[in-house]
Every structure is written in C-alpha cells, then in structure tokens.
Amino acid sequence: MVFEKVAAMLAEKLECEVSEIKPDTKFEALGIDSLDVMELLMNVEEEFGTEIELGENKVNEVGDLVKLIESKLK
C-alpha cells in the first residue's frame, strides 16, 4: 500500500508511468535531487499523516523511503 502511493506520487511528479518505478529504483536514476526528495517527503507526510525526519536515515532508493514511512506508521 505504501509503495503504491509513493510510486503514484513519483509518477505524477515525473510525468511517467507508475510501472517504471520499482522499490530498487534509485532517486538519482529518476533525475530527482535532494530538494525534490525533501518536497516528496513533505507530500508523503501530508498523505500519511506522519512526520518523517531523514536524520541519519539514508534514502537513496524508493524502497528506502517506503521502509522509512512504514516504520513511522507502526
């Protein structure tokens, strides 16, 4: 569920097909920089009603972000 929502948000932002986004897709490969990731995080926080701080958490791939979100929803 979380992955599907994140993938849909990314696909909308990047104007691409959701099927192009996989858990192991690197943000760099999508052409997303750190500023884009921060914007995505703000949208994710709003969508899931949770606060996410990157801190020491490395978010390089879509799956990393999904795991981080899922850990906050527990």
Overview of the molecule:
The structure is a single chain. The protein is mostly helical. The protein has a single domain (2-73), classed as Orthogonal Bundle (Non-ribosomal Peptide Synthetase Peptidyl Carrier Protein, Chain A). It is built from 3 helices and no strands. The protein has helices at residues 2-14, 34-48, 62-73. The longest helix is centred in the middle third of the chain and has 15 residues, at 34-48. The chain is globular and about 30 Å long. The two termini are 14 Å apart. The mean pLDDT is 88.
Short descriptors:
54% helix, 74 residues, mainly alpha, Non-ribosomal Peptide Synthetase Peptidyl Carrier Protein, Chain A
Number of helices: 3
Mean pLDDT, as a whole number?
88
Query: How can the largest sheet be summarized?
Result: none
- Binned strand content: under 5%
Helix content: 40-55%
**Assigned CATH architecture:** Orthogonal Bundle
The radius of gyration over CA amounts to 11 Å
Termini gap:
14 Å
User: CATH superfamily membership, which one?
Assistant: ACP-like
Summarize the helix and strand pattern as letters.
Answer: HHH
Secondary structure layout:
Blueprint: H1 2-14, H2 34-48, H3 62-73
Short description:
It is built from 3 helices and no strands.
